[in-house]
């Protein structure tokens, strides 16, 4: 399944901010005139959807291993430790992607805001005062007697 079709926990927020459905946001982000903010938002959304899918897979695998009807002799502490590490990594990734996407959506300009031109200070060239020429023997070593 394409990442574009996978749900994410931030889909509603993206649709609210851009006032467009997720599928249409992907189409707009693929166009050459798409804003950088939209392109990055959709990239983060894709990463988030994949991370959330990993969380669900590990959760379901642990549930299956711990099901009441399973034979206790099939339990493996090693497998469960590995799944716990995998789950921790997937949850960390999910949290990081959510935070990055939230930050991007919070700081990006609204649709009505036009970027203001930045006024750069012009460097001012200064000239150093001319110094008197150094004496001809300045810095020369004295001859030792």
General shape = elongated
- Determine the N-to-C terminus distance: 93 Å
Q: Runs with pLDDT <50, length 5+? A: none
Q: Helix coverage percent of residues?
A: 40-55%
Question: From the structure provided, what is the oligomeric state, counting identical versus distinct chains?
Answer: single chain
Radius of gyration, taken over Cα atoms and rounded to an integer in Å:
31 Å
- Number of helical elements: 4
- Write down how many β-strands occur, each being a DSSP E stretch of 2 or more residues: 0
Mean pLDDT figure: 85
Please provide the ordered H/E string of secondary-structure elements. Answer: HHHH
Structural class: mainly alpha
Fraction of residues in β-strands: under 5%
The main pleated sheet reads as:
none
Topology:
Elements: H1 11-18, H2 22-29, H3 36-65, H4 77-107
Structural key phrases:
mainly alpha; elongated; 145 residues
Q: How would you sum up this structure, described in words?
A:
- With 145 residues, the chain is mainly alpha-helical.
- 53% of the residues lie in helices and 0% in strands.
- It contains 4 helices and no strands.
- α3 (36-65) packs antiparallel against α4 (77-107).
- It is elongated, with a radius of gyration of 31 Å.
- It starts with 10 loop residues before the first helix and ends in a 38-residue tail after the last helix.
- The model has no long low-confidence stretch (mean pLDDT 85).
């Amino acid at each position: 399944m394409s990442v574009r079709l996978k749900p994410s926990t931030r889909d509603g927020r993206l649709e609210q901010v851009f006032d467009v459905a997720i599928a249409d946001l992907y189409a707009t982000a693929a166009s050459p005139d798409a804003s950088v903010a939209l392109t990055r938002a959709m990239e983060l959304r894709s990463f988030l959807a994949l991370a959330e899918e990993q969380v669900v897979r590990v959760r379901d695998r642990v549930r299956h291993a711990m099901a009441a009807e399973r034979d206790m002799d099939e339990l493996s502490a090693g497998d469960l430790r590995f799944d716990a590490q995998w789950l921790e990594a997937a949850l960390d990734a999910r949290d990081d992607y959510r935070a990055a996407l939230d930050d991007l959506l919070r700081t990006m300009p609204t649709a009505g805001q036009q970027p203001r031109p930045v006024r750069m200070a012009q460097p001012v060239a200064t000239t150093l005062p001319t110094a008197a020429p150094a004496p001809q023997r300045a810095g020369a070593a004295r001859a030792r007697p």
